[in-house]
Structure formats: structure tokens, C-alpha cells
Amino acid sequence: MAAKKILMLVGDYVEDYEVMVPFQALQMIGHTVHAVCPDKTAGQTVRTAIHDFEGDQTYSEKPGHLFALNHDFVSVEAADYDALLVPGGRAPEYLRLNEKVLQLVRDFDQAGKPIAAVCHGAQLLAAAGILEGRECSAYPACAPEVRLAGGTFIECAVTEGHVQGNLATAPAWPAHPNWLAGFLTLLGTAITL
């Protein structure tokens, strides 16, 4: 297996588990992950939020941690990476207002590179205009955005992910085992026991 270089787009109030678990897991198996945020540089941090499913009509939100960025956003280009990962939380809501972020998503997609998005990460895919005629899972509250962007919203269990073409998507962090396995398949990563 050749190690891959993965770009992770994050921002303040990214979901804690959706940024930390993939960031650590992908590095643990040998991939390089650059976590970046617009207007911030390596060594700076973003605040995370913990979203829990506790029987309410929607998720609850609690303060998370400070997540350290390890690369500068200003220098990133899709051509320098093998794949893109978009965690959820509240960050995608405002990151989609940044044209460079949207262009990065488009560039990864136009190159046919693997793209993984979980929970509200689908907001970036929709805003970048890459869901037309495609299937995408996401947090159910994002279903209207997926559909308005011309995509087919895939409703699946919170523990399941969905892969179509170069997209690996999932409704929320409980899907990490399934969603990350799908992303690893797109990356060509084989884990043998």
C-alpha cells in the first residue's frame, strides 16, 4: 500500500469526533493528513463541538476541545493531494461561503479523487455543485440541501456509510467504522490481519 496525502477542511465548531477520529485513524495506518482552516495557519487551533444523540428531536451540542491545525490553508491546492475529507459540525455551514474552499472541492471532484464527507460535510459538496445526479448520505437535516443540489439523498442507519463513485458519505460519527472503511477502499488502502 502506498501512503496517501489527504486534505481535511475544518473550521471552528467542527464536530469533535468527526475531525479527531479520522485525523488520527488515517495517520495510524500510514497516510498523511493535512488539517487546514481558512484564515488560520499550522499550529493554530479550531474549537470543536460534541454532537450527541440523546433522544431529542435533533442532536445536542456540547463544548469539545481545541483541535490543532498542522498545515497552512493558504498554500493548499488539490493537485498536491490524493483525497479530500470534510468533517461535519457547524463549520461547513460557513466554510461554504469561502470560494477557495468551494473551488478545492470542485477540483478534487473534477480530478476524480476520493472525497469523504460526514454529517453536515455534505453542505460543502452541495454548495460546490458536485452532487448533481449523484447519491449522498448526510445528517438528515441536510437532505433538502442534497436534493436542491440535484443529488439523491441516501437515508441510512446512523452507523452506516454510503459509497458511490468517488464519494464516501455518512450521516454522523457513529458511522466511522463503515464510512472510513469505504473511504479506505476508495483510497486503495488494504488492511490485512
From TrEMBL:
Cross-referenced InterPro entries: C56_PfpI-like (IPR006286), Class_I_gatase-like (IPR029062), DJ-1/PfpI (IPR002818)
Matching SUPFAM superfamilies: Class I glutamine amidotransferase-like
Pfam families attached to this UniProt entry: DJ-1_PfpI
Domain annotation DJ-1/PfpI: ranges: 4-181
PROSITE patterns cross-referenced by the UniProt entry: PEPTIDASE_C56_PFPI
Family label: Belongs to the peptidase C56 family.
Protein name: DJ-1/PfpI family protein
